[in-house]
Amino acid sequence: MGIGLALLIFNDASGDASGISSDTLGRVFYLGVLGAVIGAGILASRHRFGDMARNLALWLLVVLLLVAGYQYRYELQDVANRVTVGLVPGSPLSVTDSEGQNTVTLEKLPNGHFEARLSIDGKPVRVLVDTGATSTVLTTRDAERVGFDAEKLAYTIPISTANGNATAARVIAGEIRLGAITRRNMPLLVAAPGMLEQSLLGMNFIGALSGFDVRGDRMILRD
């Protein structure tokens, strides 16, 4: 250690010692000290060589798994998202490309519709994707879950639903999140009580994206 420190000190002025740069010499010195400490610890433990070799191999395997997990973290996250989509219908599969563009994929339900799990002002809401709906419409139950007082809303806006004509009230959502796609301060409609069975994701949200398309059983939304 003393010789290594001396070489580093004398090498600092010239930047070179026997053809070895200061950075390389510093790394060699560091690894040498680390190896000496580990070796001294192994010798002082007085364990059998076979036990020590097995323990070192296990620790090496743990380190390699951690490094591999970090290097492939995005691929592992993609696999986890795909598993979640398969287990929980409506779960969005989010992917970020090399240019930083977010893409969300929805799987078609057995009934032939696309369903999505939104987060509106931090509260989970299941919605039916309806490209024929001009606005995103919440049921009174979902509106109250988000935080709107359904009893104090003015249901004066006429809307057309699958169940016929109805009335709705206008509200503003601070944040709507669909996977990795987020929109803020977006106007929503709340259907009058009993007028809507399930909340709808309409074109005021979908139209704010750069594009979307349907490929077989998948709907792809691009931020």
TrEMBL record:
Listed CDD domains: retropepsin_like_bacteria
E.C. number(s) listed in UniProt: 3.4.23.-
Gene Ontology biological process terms from the UniProt entry: proteolysis
Record-annotated membrane-spanning stretches: 25-44, 56-72
Peptidase A2 domain: residues covered: 125-205
Record-linked InterPro entries: Aspartic_peptidase_AS, Clan_AA_Asp_peptidase_C, Peptidase_A2_cat, Peptidase_aspartic_dom_sf, Retropepsin-like_bacterial
Top enzyme class: hydrolase
Gene Ontology terms for molecular function: aspartic-type endopeptidase activity
UniProt keyword annotations, A-Z: Hydrolase, Membrane, Protease, Transmembrane, Transmembrane helix
Entry-linked NCBIfam families: clan_AA_DTGA
Stated name of the protein: TIGR02281 family clan AA aspartic protease
